[in-house]
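Quick check before the chapter quiz. The format below is the same one you will see on the exam, so make sure you can read both the input and the output lines.
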Amino acid sequence: MSEHTSLPIWVDTHCHLDAPEFADNLSGVIQAAVDNNVQAILLPAVKAGDCKQVRELANHYGQQIPGLVYTLGIHPLYTNQAQEDDIALLEQEIHQAISDPRFVGIGEIGLDYFVEGLDPHKQEYFFQAQLDLAQQYQLPVILHVRRSQDVILKALRRRKIKSGIAHAFNGSFQQAEQFIELGFKLGFGGAATYERALQIRRLLIELPLDSIVTETDAPDIPPAWLKAEGIAFNQPAFLPRIARELAAIRGMSEVEFASATWRNAMQVLPRWSALCTDLIIPNLAP
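Here is the expected output.
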């Protein structure tokens, strides 16, 4: 796009395009994202056995969305069914993916202390093992940090992790500052569109602009208006509307917000930035 146009381009730093909700119409979902100028999407794997599918999906639809990339990892919600051998399988997949320019990091990994029935010891084992892989391969990480921010921060401080994103951030301002100091960006999406989400909105307003990235977590984390409009689930095409609300909360123009959040995402995931060098990023508004 020309730098003289005011039409923003958008980046969705967290979208589960391989989810079953999209299976019947994935081409349509991708095209809708394209039509709404979502030019970059990050697809995180959630199970070791899904790595091949995620890689193939990113490469297949990369013709339509030039900035479509993926990460490989085991999500904390899937650790109860994971086996120790999955770490070896994941490492094999990472080693194979290193030569793929659409592979940009490790994720979605982390800890979840909200969902009941998850074995905390298994969560911890898989999280620590995957952080070790990120350090070994010098890759950024996409983090799931639900009610587990302090434990995750402690684990990060023990290693040399390049950078990453704390997805769907909903911690304290002090915790946010600590993630930022460690080189992380913080993901904001549909949750902030709810008027009752006072803490998330406060973070969105008070945090430095260069610490924020946009995401949908589609098909999850629906924006406030989704159900009222009779829409079944979230999708990446809704990112511009979500992001416009985020920009309004900060009192910014959508063009400035889009440009800043694009730059932030590319900064924290350098392999993604390298893939997207052919995309012209709009200048920040003066």
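If your answer matched, good. The chain has one domain: 10-273.
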